[in-house]
Description:
Blueprint: E1 4-7, E2 10-13, E3 18-24, E4 33-39, E5 46-51, E6 58-60, E7 68-73, E8 78-83, E9 92-99, E10 108-109, E11 113-118
Parallel strand pairs: 2-11
Antiparallel strand pairs: 1-3, 3-8, 4-5, 4-9, 5-6, 7-8, 9-10, 9-11
Amino acid sequence: QVQLVESGGGLVQAGDSLRLTCAASGRTFSSIAMGWFRQAPGKEREFVAAIRSSGGRTSYADFVKGRFTVSRDNAKNRMFLQMNSLKPEDTAVYYCAARWDDYGNYEFWGQGTQVTVSS
């Protein structure tokens, strides 16, 4: 089992930056692939970014490319999402997720952290 806890959300203005952190339990963190998702009010949850277990390869949704950066520190069981140039449409609950390989379904989810961007 993997337990995930997100932190770092908050209320910011358009153009500001935030850094989200996902803390993972267990000694297998370096062998699991991770991702970030978000869900805005009245909308379905959507993919934001992903990073492989080694941290060597990342992928992003088109709407965050060039603004968001996903990274991980396997020594500290942490994954991060650096969000720059935030827009009001980035307002959502952000979730981190984990899966055992790079192409399977995400099996483990955090409780989410709220990000609100005011105009």
